[in-house]
TrEMBL record:
Name used for this protein in its record: Glycolipid transfer protein
Gene Ontology terms: cellular component: cytosol
The gene coding this protein: 25486298
MF annotations from Gene Ontology: ceramide 1-phosphate binding; ceramide 1-phosphate transfer activity
Family: Belongs to the GLTP family.
Gene Ontology BP terms: ceramide transport; intermembrane lipid transfer
Domain Glycolipid transfer protein stretches: 33-171
Highest taxon of the lineage: Eukaryota
Organism: Medicago truncatula (Barrel medic)
Keywords associated with the record: Lipid transport, Transport
Amino acid sequence: MAESINSNKTLHQIAVAFKNLANTVSDSQSAEVEVAPFSHACSLISPLFGSLGIAFKFAEKDYVAKVNDLAEASKSVPKLHSLIDQDVQANSVRNAGSHTRNLLRVKRGLDMVRVLFQQMIITEGNSLRDPASKAYEQALAPYHGWAIKKAVSAGMYLIPTKEQLLNKLNEDAESAKVQMQIYVSASEAVIQYIDKLFDSRNLGTDW
Ligand code: 1PZ
């Protein structure tokens, strides 16, 4: 009963989708992740942007476009690794808009949410500014130019409080913590898997 009441909540959906992906990844050394469930799981993150308000519209647009590109690619390329290998063969890995480049950007978005949730779990008080700033500093800022960093730091003054965010997500603090913790662990495994795909092909992940 509690499960069915809970099941359509954003955080619960995110937790379930990433737990399933993490299970695929840990099945064996030679695990192969399919693009479709991956891009679907990533698309579940998008509603979080809406809860952050207008300030991060530009981030949402960028993220959603890249996730949509992966979803589109899944129709012809079934596995994440084949998506990368195709770009390697075409020598288009770093090209603007390539699937591989979009995958790397989306992975950073997942990492941003991972650190954000991790910080929300351990940070006392009602402000999201420290958790959000730490997450941005760690996951995205090193790859952004000054104009984007300026826009983001301006946006940080407009983000809601933790209470407002949890209300919008229809969560109380305790249930939110449980779902966020599931995402933190599961996304870590998925992120490591993607990093390995890049590293094993000597593509680097710092561009
Ligand atoms: C309370 C939480 C506050 C969250 C603050 C989120 C700040 C994110 C700001 C990101 C701005 C991104 C603007 C566009 C950047 C693009 O230049 C790059 C490179 O794209 P390319 O040249 O390859 O086309 N895109 C990215 O770096 C991907 C950014 C993904 C952002 C996902 C963030 C997820 C945060 C969700 C928070 C709930």
